[in-house]
Design a protein that fits this description.
This protein has helices at residues 19-29, 32-45, 52-58, 61-66, 82-88, 113-116, 132-137, 142-153, 157-168, 180-187, 191-201, 214-224, 230-236, 239-243, 247-254, 258-269, 318-327, 331-368, 370-375, 385-392, 396-403, 436-448, 457-466, 473-482, 488-502; strands at 49-51, 292-296, 302-306, 314-316, 407-410, 413-416, 424-425, 434-435. By secondary structure, it is mainly α. It has three domains: 20-92 and 288-421, no CATH class; 142-279, no CATH class; 424-502, Homeodomain-like (Arc Repressor Mutant, subunit A), CATH 1.10.10.60. A four-stranded mixed beta sheet has the order 3-2-5-6, covered by helices on one side. It has a two-stranded antiparallel sheet with strand order 1-4. It has a two-stranded antiparallel ribbon with strand order 7-8. A hairpin with an 8-residue loop joins strand 7 and strand 8 (434-435). Helix 9 (157-168) packs across helix 11 (191-201). The longest helix has 38 residues, at 331-368. Sigma factors are initiation factors that promote the attachment of RNA polymerase to specific initiation sites and are then released. This is RNA polymerase sigma-54 factor. Residues 57-77 are annotated as: Disordered.
Length: 503
């Protein structure tokens, strides 16, 4: 068999993605906080970019006239059209990829002592660099809180080293996830020494810290209260029975009557199962800023508008570019300025396109879920991404990116856009299908309003079928468990316990 070289011509199509186009797709999926952070970074890197508010505050009318805004969203036409976008990018942004596969009271020392002793004459003790805002913005972490107690309680240097190694193994809830035997092997210390230091660390605040499981965490807190007697030990050792509300077995194991058992359960409920959660996060959670606002219009329809607070407005300073580019003689400088102008124009167009796409998707969601806005969750319609994508002429992946981590302010509250997309449950007759979220809400209401006789899952199925919902028992059980609603057996036991406590 002879081998020979051949020349062949093949014609194929492929989507070439430029870095800017890929970044435009990422912009579509960014949250409000991520977008603000990205725009700030671009403004720092690009001297031709500036915030629109900067021009308005300084009153520089000339700069405002020379600048190019991203577009207004109060009903007027924006400055960039779809034709302009297609000329700049390799492909439309709308047809890209398939779909991508309890805080407790704050513990620890009072930071206000750092500034209250700063002096009585109004001069901070720290000098000119003293920043009161920075002190109050800081938050004590769990590791800092533990480190302070280690330095006060443990004086031996080796003991402190072991204690800090144990503290490194704590998770956000305050549980010790590392094996003390492994820590002893890593440090070359004896197992007895590590256990002794661990026992000392378990006396730290908050109570229950350094526990290795929930039972030990509760035991440490009960021991601190001098309430870890044999009956309570039996109760803590059988938390699985407590979760199942098996009161008969618990009374037998603990050797107490029903009244004592109820008191012990009330005491367990008063404990903190996550003692380290007060220090978790290390900062303030980001506030939800709705991207879209929906309100009733005068003609009886719904007015859908973009929230201006969630849209960063960026201007391109053309006057500054003309001034600097005229004086630039070095080819490197000219290339830098040209690249800055290109990136600035790209950012304004991308923000404009992002805003248009969000508004288009949100408007279609409002149109589809009009009954929900008027009458509540029971009238939420089944909806999927493909339905919205076909209605507005976009790709399903684009709708998926737009609805990720975006929020809508409606007369019924703030909802994530993904909330309006729910599975369909068939009707028992010839009626329309029901939304899974509406069925879940109905199950919740039935349980909350159930009569003296507790409703079983089969009873809930019968009620829903009489109301026109064709649903299986396993689906009711799945929805009930997703809402953390106990089974009928557990609810019956809980009701008996409550009745006994009231007697």
């Amino acid at each position: 068999m002879a081998l020979a070289a051949k020349l062949q011509l093949r014609q194929s199509q492929s989507l070439v993605m430029t870095p800017q186009l890929m970044q435009s797709i990422r912009l579509l999926q960014m949250t409000h906080v991520e977008l603000e952070r990205f725009v700030e970074e671009e403004i720092e890197r690009n001297p031709l970019l500036e915030r629109a508010e900067t021009v308005e505050e300084t009153g520089d009318a000339g700069a405002a006239a020379e600048a190019v805004p991203t577009g207004e969203w109060n009903g007027t036409e924006a400055g960039w059209s779809a034709e302009t976008m297609s000329e700049v990018f390799d492909s439309s942004l709308e047809n890209m990829f398939p779909d991508d596969p309890g805080t407790a009271v704050r513990l620890g020392p009072d930071l206000s002592a750092q500034w209250k002793s700063a002096g009585t004459q109004g001069t901070p003790a720290g000098g000119d660099d003293f920043d009161l805002e920075e002190i109050f913005a800081s938050r004590i972490t769990l590791r800092d809180h533990i480190a302070e107690q280690i330095s006060v309680t443990i004086t031996d240097p080796i003991g402190r080293l072991i204690a800090h190694s144990l503290a490194d193994g704590l998770d956000e809830a305050g549980y010790l996830r590392d094996d003390p035997a492994e820590i002893a092997a890593q440090l070359g210390a004896g197992d007895d020494a590590v256990r002794a230091i661990l026992k000392t660390c378990q006396t730290f605040e908050p109570a229950g810290i350094f526990a290795r499981d929930l039972a030990e965490c509760l035991a440490l807190q009960l021991t601190r209260r001098d309430r870890f007697d044999p009956a309570m030990q039996a109760l803590v050792g059988n938390l699985d029975l407590l979760a199942r509300r098996d009161f008969q077995a618990l009374k037998r194991l603990c050797g107490v009557d029903e009244e004592d058992l109820l008191e012990m359960m009330a005491e367990i409920r008063g404990l903190d199962p996550r003692p380290g959660a007060a220090f978790a996060g290390g900062g303030v959670a980001d506030a939800i800023v709705p991207d879209v606002e929906v309100c009733p219009a005068s003609d009886g329809s719904w007015a859908v508008e973009l929230n201006s607070d969630a849209l960063p407005r960026v201007l391109v300073d053309q006057a500054y570019f003309a001034q600097v580019s005229g004086r630039a003689t070095d080819p490197v400088e000219k290339e830098f300025l040209s690249e800055c102008l290109q990136n600035a124009n790209w950012l304004t167009r991308s923000l404009d396109q992002r805003a248009r796409t969000i508004l288009k998707v949100a408007s279609e969601i409002v149109r589809q879920q009009d009954a929900f806005l008027l009458r509540g969750i029971r009238h939420l319609r089944p909806l999927n991404l493909r339905t919205v994508a076909e209605a507005i002429g976009m790709h399903e992946s684009t709708v998926s990116r737009v609805t990720a981590n975006k929020y809508m302010l409606t007369p019924r509250g703030v909802f994530e856009l993904r909330y309006f997309f729910t599975a369909a449950i068939a009707a028992s007759g010839e009626g329309e299908a029901h939304s899974a979220e509406a069925v879940r809400d109905r199950i919740r209401q039935l349980v909350e309003e159930e009569p003296e006789e507790v409703l079983s899952d089969d009873s809930i199925v019968d009620i829903l079928r009489r109301e026109g919902v064709d649903i299986a028992r396993r689906t009711v059980a799945k929805y009930r468990e997703s809402m953390n609603i106990p089974s009928s057996v557990q609810r019956r036991r809980e009701r008996r316990a409550q009745a006994a406590a009231c007697r």
